[in-house]
UniProtKB/TrEMBL annotation:
Protein name: Helix-turn-helix transcriptional regulator
SMART domains for the chain: HTH_XRE
Organism: Streptomyces luteolus
SUPFAM superfamilies found in the cross-reference section: lambda repressor-like DNA-binding domains
Xref: PROSITE patterns: HTH_CROC1
Amino acid sequence: MPASPSSSAQAAREAVARQLRDLRKEAGLTVVQLAEACGWHYSKTSRIENALTGPSVRDIRRWCTATGAEDQAQELVTQSIHAESMYRQWRDQVRAGLRHVQDSRVRLFQATAVHRLYSASLVPGLLQSEGYVRAVLGIASTVHGLPPEDVDDAVRARLDRSRIVNEPGRRFVVVIEEPVLYHQITDVDAMGAQLGYLLTAGALPAVSFGIIPMGERRSHWPEETFHMYDSDRVTVELVSAEVTVTQPAEVAQYAAAFDRLRSMAVYGADARALITRAIDALDRPSPGD
């Protein structure tokens, strides 16, 4: 199982904090003296050194000046920016609106030749139908307290981005858990359309679409939703944030996990049979009807 992505992001922040603390100690400064030299309260120094607060670029430059380590400032700034970019809270990402979140991924999608996606909860965005997209983004809008009109723009942006599955020169390997087919996040008609779209999308030349069936003994447990971009980057969706993993050893862990999950999935006719069963279940009357 890959190491916790949130832990990896915190470890990167702690590495910067440790180096800053070492600079202070090497300069013979106390926490209070460093704070006075930088012009802030000593509690801020403590929060930075304990990786509770990420330092700004200005904070790092002041720190290095106070400790006589100006030559190390740029390297620490670069490390800190990388550490903070690894962990991006959803509330920060949606501040500019849901469309901004969709648009911010376009370049990364276009620069990727092989996309690997795994989801245990939702149909991945690249294979979502319009009604399903609207339901997913509508829920996100409600959770984050965004205006309803923001959803329409975001829906169009996500659907535009999804057209990449029809462009030549790319490969999409998608694995979902079978319960995804039954998570009814929208009305019956829209769910039916989504499931029908999966039948079509799974037949696209560039798409390998697998489903891990329920009720069979597993060789690997479900993971958090993640998306691999070639072999360089992984984004992991947590409840509170999206975490970016770029360390080669960690990316390799996700690649190995994906291969195990992929080996448990069924494809082709077997996958279509699972989707058809889910479609049939939509038409069944609820108990008591």
